[in-house]
Design a protein that fits this description.
single chain; alpha+beta; Immunoglobulin-like; 6-stranded antiparallel beta sheet; 5-stranded antiparallel beta sheet; 38 helices; 17 strands; about 55% helix; coated pit; Coatomer/calthrin_app_sub_C; clathrin adaptor activity; membrane
Length: about 950
């Protein structure tokens, strides 16, 4: 294609952008005219599409030529079909309207007997991966995978394409129905096919461990054929290690299931592990040999730990790991520390690991941050009462020079270790306050909340904590988290130290108030509460405190103004009865799971392959072992049922629920004991988005509906409180039994179901029942709560997973009484990023209609201000989100500027809380882009 070569040469010879743009525009005009001609042959279309692709790769927008690319797919000439598929995969995305035009051609190529056409179609499906393609073509991809006539390289691509579709749209692919056929392909003689299928099974087994339980024995047999029988192709020997990729995946697969009960199978696995460890004794010939050998070895050690952490193989592994963590190779040190952390998280005795404590502590100062992270994980897992003080002290010392990327995680782990292994109250207080003083901004809300809970619940701590925190506040250094802790503790327990030298009431007040003007508005509000408690505890400093209340009666912030006015009124009453009642000492907090653990667990997000163990001690991994045992019992029961009459009904359970995950649920049924196990890995119901998105800005409507059941809601919200009426309708002519609803706990929402009058769990034919739910927002959040529904209707239980449309703006009160000067003054005070979140986007739901935009904004509970913006088409709005006692009241300002000519919106949200800005912007963007 000489013309293409000349065009590329011309572009490369352009020395400035203006010349390149001129040449691009000239070529685009030429291509447009050629496409309008309509008399182009396949070769010419291919050439011009190639030019468009080159422009697209350079970053230029291509808004034409898509249909010509689609037409090339139908060509019988390979080079034209190839360019057509290449253009489609580059120019189209999964939500593109033109994808529908590709589906039929792609399906035709999947059915073709030409394996080259099969592969081109599979490439396109894997690269675009949209829901429509998944729904229409997944069955054809599966057919190519299991067909005995398919070539090996077609099967490999089909397996990986199916994997891509499952990861993208797991609710569309019926993988449970295909389990036996897919598992059977693990025995393929071609190692490439076996590797691709094992990769697919590795992902499917994590989501459906019961259905894919047969893969366990297949993985062991494949390992035996490789290591014992030496049955493999010479093409798959990588630096003297036979197919290391397949070995690693088979070993990883074994860790997702409990140790087998069959003694023969356990003996086979032990033999395989011993062979791998023995082979690792050979000195590697080069770096590549070492990498392949170590990859298999470390995964084998993980399997040994999983089977029995106290076995002789694990003892050998501990000695090997001690050598690896001292290696000069960064990768080897990394893998050694990670595997030793796994061992520390499962083994009964930590003594073999403690022998290497000095080396592990030195890893915190490694030149590579990944190694430092693994060293931190290992120290956290190996900590116990005997070495806690050494490890915590070293972590505190290192925290002063640690990378900012690691500080937040280090703070959480230090706080958890100090609480877990504290032998003296004074040591715990010293460590936590030193942590807050050192880490500063990296200390999250969860840390100081937890400190307050523990101090409040332990009388022995209160006096020492008050005295120590006062010393920190007396220093000239400013640390807002320390001010918060100090304000709360001194307000509650300052009277316990009032008679000590240097701790008089006026000195306590001065120590706190010296930092007052440096604090954020939220912290100042907390300190005003501290001051009113000072008046109740120390009447002698009432005059100094009242002057502060008088000063803040006229500030712009509504929260500070309200507190100052109310506290001043209470403090100046004729009697102190009201003041003493309001300022009574806080009662002990109810015992509950530490939020620090939950926060730490959220930081260890899973990739495609879930972590098979939890960072922490042996106790932290006990729940996972229980989950694996449940899987084993379910596998056995399914086998027993298969031998009887009828097919078994298998309920999927999560593979490994960690002890940090919340397991209790708010159940909307009076008989919680009879609730069936609802799988927490259940995918969201297909089509749930329609009702969920619409009800974000409407008070009532249908949340979900299918041929059997309908769920509707009516809502009302006032401040941080909300009430939801959930209506469940049986659309069938048969009774619906065992109807249960469950809402898992939400960290920032307090969800309380009300006891229904009808205590039965049955809905008659064509009937309806109601459940009421009370919702309270306690902090700012971005994720809506989940709703699980189960019912039985002439067969096995049905499960539905939905999202409740309880978004943050539901707790927003609109503000309409604000003039333009006041609005722009507050707008300017908030400034730009990170408090500002702005986006420009196109209306995909059709031409912009201003009345609809107006209704959407009001539906999201914004007060729209009239006459503020000189352009009458622009929208200006304001509201206050009431995020409860923790999040407080957060103002939100909005500007929406529609461009009717270009069908574009510019949306800008400003708020003192950047999470609020980003979340509200995302909600409005999605609704305005596609319509409610």
């Amino acid at each position: 294609m000489r013309g293409l070569l000349v065009f590329i040469s011309d572009i490369r010879n352009c020395r400035v952008r203006e010349l390149e743009e001129k040449r691009i525009n000239k070529e685009m005009a030429n291509i447009r005219s050629k496409f309008k001609d309509g008399s182009l042959n396949g070769y010419q279309k291919k050439k011009y599409v190639c030019k468009l692709l080159y422009m697209y790769i350079l970053g230029w927008d291509i808004d034409f030529g898509h249909l010509e690319a689609v037409n090339l797919i139908s060509s019988t000439v390979y080079s034209e079909k190839q360019i057509g598929y290449l253009a489609v995969t580059l120019l189209f995305h999964e939500n593109s309207d033109l994808v529908r035009l590709v589906v039929n051609s792609t399906k035709k190529d999947l059915d073709d007997m030409n394996e080259i056409n099969n592969c081109l179609a599979l490439h396109a499906i894997a690269n675009i991966g949209g829901r429509e393609m998944a729904e229409s073509l997944a069955t054809d991809v599966h057919r190519l995978l299991i067909s005995p006539t398919s070539k090996s390289f077609v099967k490999k691509k089909a397996a990986l394409t199916l994997l891509r579709l499952f990861r993208k749209h797991p609710d569309v692919i019926p993988v449970t129905d295909w389990a036996d056929r897919i598992i059977g392909l693990m025995d393929e003689y071609d190692l490439g096919v076996a590797l691709s299928v094992t990769t697919l099974v590795l992902t499917l087994a994590q989501s459906f461990p019961v259905e894919y339980g047969g893969c366990y024995e297949k993985a062991v047999n494949r390992m035996k054929r490789t290591l014992v029988d030496r049955d493999y192709s010479l093409d798959y020997i990588y630096y003297k290690v036979p197919t290391p990729w397949l070995q690693v995946k088979c070993l990883r697969l074994l860790q997702y299931y409990p140790p087998p009960e069959d003694p023969k199978l356990r003996e086979d696995i032990s033999e395989l592990l011993q062979i791998i460890i023995t082979n690792s004794q050979d000195a590697p010939k080069n770096v590549q040999h070492s990498n392949a050998q170590n990859a298999v070895l470390f995964e084998a050690i993980n399997v040994a730990i999983h089977l029995d952490s106290n076995s002789t193989i694990c003892a050998q592994a501990a000695a090997l790991l001690g050598r690896f963590i001292s290696s000069k190779e960064t990768n080897v040190r990394y893998l050694g520390l990670e595997t030793m952390a796994h061992l520390a998280a499962c083994v009964d005795s930590l003594e073999p690991i403690k022998r290497h404590q000095e080396t592990i502590l030195m890893s915190l100062r490694d030149k590579d941050i990944s190694v430092r992270r693994r060293g931190l994980d290992l120290l956290y897992s190996m900590c116990d009462t005997s070495n806690a003080k050494i490890i915590v002290s070293e972590l505190l010392r290192y925290l002063q020079v640690a990378d900012y990327a690691m500080r937040e995680e280090m703070v959480l782990k230090i706080a958890i270790l100090a609480e877990k292994f504290a032998t003296a109250y004074s040591w715990y207080v010293d460590i936590i306050l030193q942590l807050i003083s050192t880490a500063g901004e990296q200390v999250g809300e969860e840390v100081w909340f937890r400190v307050v809970q523990i101090v409040t619940n332990n009388d022995e701590l209160q006096e020492y904590a008050a005295k120590t925190v006062l010393n920190y506040l007396g220093s000239p250094q400013y640390n807002e988290t320390m001010v918060k802790v100090g304000g709360y503790i001194l307000g509650e327990f300052g009277h316990l130290i009032a008679n000590y030298p240097g701790c008089s009431p006026i000195e306590q007040f001065n120590a706190v108030h010296s930092k007052f003007n440096l604090c954020s508005l939220q912290t100042r509000a907390l300190l005003l509460t501290t001051y009113v408690k000072f008046i109740n505890l120390f009447p002698e400093i009432k005059g100094q405190v009242l002057s502060v209340f008088n000063q803040y009666r006229y500030v712009l912030d509504s929260e500070l103004q309200q507190r100052a006015c109310e506290y001043l009124a209470i403090s100046t009453m004729p009697t102190d009865d009201m003041l003493q009642t309001v300022c009574e000492e806080m009662p002990p907090f109810p015992e509950r799971e530490s939020t620090l653990l939950l926060k730490l667990n959220q930081k260890h997000g899973d990739t495609e392959d879930k972590r098979v163990w939890v960072i922490g001690g042996k106790e932290a991994n006990m729940e996972r072992q229980e989950g694996l045992k449940r899987i084993a019992s379910m596998r056995m029961s399914s086998v027993d049922s298969a031998g009887g009459n009828g097919s078994p009904t298998i309920v999927n359970t999560p593979l490994a629920s960690t002890p940090l995950a919340i397991t209790s649920t708010a159940t909307l049924s009076p008989r919680a004991a009879s609730i069936p196990v609802i799988p927490t890995n259940l995918p969201l119901a297909q089509g749930y988005e329609l009702g969920f998105n619409r009800l974000q800005c409407f008070k009532e409507g249908v949340l979900y509906e299918d041929g059997q059941i309908q769920l509707s809601i009516k809502t009302e919200y006032h401040g941080s409180q909300g009430r939801i009426g959930l209506y469940i309708s049986n659309k069938t002519p048969f009774p619906m039994t065992n109807v249960f609803l469950q809402i898992p706990p939400h960290a920032q929402l307090n969800i309380q179901p009300q006891q229904p009058e009808d205590t039965s769990n049955t809905i008659g034919p064509q009937s309806q029942t109601q459940r009421l739910i009370q919702v309270e927002c306690v902090d700012v959040y971005s994720s809506a709560p989940d709703l699980f529904c189960t019912y039985t209707l002439n067969g096995p239980p049905e499960f539905i997973h939905l999202k409740l449309p309880v978004v943050l703006t539901k707790f927003q009160e609109p503000i309409e009484a604000m003039d333009g000067a006041n609005f722009f003054k507050r707008w300017g005070q908030l400034g730009g990023p990170p408090r500002e979140s702005q986006i420009i986007f196109k209306s995909e739901g059709g031409p912009i209609q201003l009345p609809i935009a107006d209704a959407v904004l009001r539906g999201y509970r914004f007060g729209l201000l009239q006459g503020v913006d000189p352009n009458p088409n622009n929208f200006v709005g304001a509201g206050v989100v009431d995020a409860g006692t923790t999040g407080g009241k957060v103002g939100v300002l909005l500007r929406l500027e529609p461009n009717l000519e270009q069908n574009m919106y510019r949306l800008t949200i400003r708020s003192p809380n950047e999470l609020v800005s980003d979340h509200v912007r995302a909600l409005l963007e999605r609704t305005l882009m596609y319509g409610a």
